């Protein structure tokens, strides 16, 4: 059932299912992320046999056809949302909601039909706890609506979850650099030191940075900063979260440091970037 936003008197077309039984999947007019936390199951997904072993993520669109053949001790939860939830609208106390041409692009391909992806994404122990935490908070926000930015906060977790799955599926080879990339994509919102990255790669600083320079064109810590700023751009564009909350969500200890780094790398402050992105969308 859609949520009624008690803070802003609007209907939000999202649902959180704490105990997914797979009877109603896929949900009508919804995209769905299902987090299978235990057990295993055999499916027919769009005519193809698929085996899912927990922990895994299943991404479904409303056009998918799914039939459960067998389930064994499965526990799972789902977050589903209307595709328009990817669209961005900004709220003003004076004018209400203003539609824009902005659209969240992160994770869209995870729901697309192709011959490469089965729509099932394995979750290893390194990312399980992070996904479990994000799903738990997202589900809590759906029911609690803790403040007027609860929808923005859910969009934040949606961007983080889909972005993490997307990034991890880009790097299948277990090279030292890919191990560090995986570590960054999982833990960028936490404090990370160069020592953490060298320990992850089992390389010294010089070797790690040379390998990173060869593959990514920058040092490991420069990549970390660039990735944090990339996520912050999405949050600035698609949510009304405060700079302090965005800073903390992307691993910057203080909003002043976040603003300083954003200005140095992007040539404008986060507030100017947010304003420009909205003005650009309104003229498209």
Walkthrough of the structure:
Residues 178-276 form the HTH araC/xylS-type domain. InterPro entries: Homeodomain-like_sf (IPR009057), HTH_AraC (IPR018060), HTH_AraC-typ_CS (IPR018062). The protein has two domains: 1-170, Jelly Rolls (Sandwich), CATH 2.60.120; 171-284, Homeodomain-like (Arc Repressor Mutant, subunit A, Orthogonal Bundle), CATH 1.10.10.60. The protein contains nine helices and ten strands. It has helices at residues 125-144, 150-168, 176-187, 194-201, 205-216, 220-238, 243-249, 255-266, 270-282; strands spanning 3-5, 10-12, 14-17, 31-45, 48-53, 56-60, 66-81, 87-92, 96-103, 120-122. The strands form three sheets. Strands 3, 4, 5, 6, 7 and 10 form a six-stranded antiparallel beta sheet that branches. It has a two-stranded antiparallel sheet with strand order 1-2. It has a two-stranded antiparallel sheet with strand order 8-9. α1 runs antiparallel to α2 (150-168) and α7 packs across α8 (255-266). The longest helix has 20 residues, at 125-144. It is globular, with a radius of gyration of 20 Å.
